[in-house]
Amino acid sequence: MTDTRIDGWSGAELAAILNLPRVEVLHEVTSTLDVAHLLGAEGAKSGTLVIADRQTAGRGRAGNKWESPAGSGLWITILERPPDASGMEVLSLRVGLLAARALDRFSADPVRLKWPNDLYVDGRKLGGILTEARWQEGRLEWVALGVGVNVREPIQFTGGAGLEAGTGRMEVLFELVPAVRAAAACRGELGSRELAEWSSRDMARGHDCTQPARGTVLGINASGELLVAIADSVARFRSGSLVLDPLT
């Protein structure tokens, strides 16, 4: 892979300041997740970071494409090798929670969360998280933590948010990477404090939804399941997409 610079920084310089074993800085890739998995298969150490100026096929959930134009956002993946699979079911939620906390300082409004992996500001999408694990004979080998953040408000599509004007991508990177790594180091289900903070940032709680079922969003539980009130019962969803009813 050919190392380059992003906003004046080389991979070696970023690795030194972030205390990481390796940083791959690339001008253009299909997805930083793809590169991270290749590095994982080659034996890359935990904490390896891949950052690209542009992604041509950035990935969202359910096969959706994430728009990742050059110069406008932060498109990164961090490779981690957890000692076990404890907490994997809530990992993307944990990353989102700590990422929102880190990004607050760059936003005039609090960064909100939408289950299972979206970051919002003022009702518009700021970013997203996608985690992909690789297993061998039932054992977790590594997990790739992909994070995309619109540093500048996107002009190529509507409904997107950016951070405050003048925010630099490396400023965001220096806050975001430690936050993501801290989330990856946590084990087990979400704790009471995490659930309370999630609830305070949850943009969907109390709103009606049409997917994954018609009902009213109540929040999430310690296992990361979405709770939806349907008639006189509460349904729990471990996966799927949350679509809010635009009429409510």
Characteristics:
8-stranded mixed beta sheet, alpha+beta, 5 helices, 15 strands, 2 domains, 5-stranded antiparallel beta sheet, BirA Bifunctional Protein, domain 2, 248 residues
Give the percentage of residues in beta strands: 35-45%
Contiguous uncertain segments of 5+ residues: none
How many DSSP-defined strands? 15
Structural class: alpha+beta
CA-based gyration radius: 18 Å
Tell me, briefly, the overall form: globular
Counted up, domains total 2
What is the CATH architecture descriptor of the largest domain? 2-Layer Sandwich
Listing every helix as H and every strand as E from the N terminus to the C terminus, the arrangement reads EEHEHEEEHEEEEHHEEEEE
Cα end-to-end separation: 49 Å
Can you tell me the CATH class of the largest domain?
A: Alpha Beta
Q: How many DSSP H or I helices? A: 5
Task: Provide the residue-averaged pLDDT.
Answer: 93
By CATH, the topology of the largest domain is BirA Bifunctional Protein, domain 2
Give the name of the CATH superfamily of the largest domain. Bira Bifunctional Protein, Domain 2
Main β-sheet, in a few words? Answer: 8 strands, mixed
Helix content: 10-25%
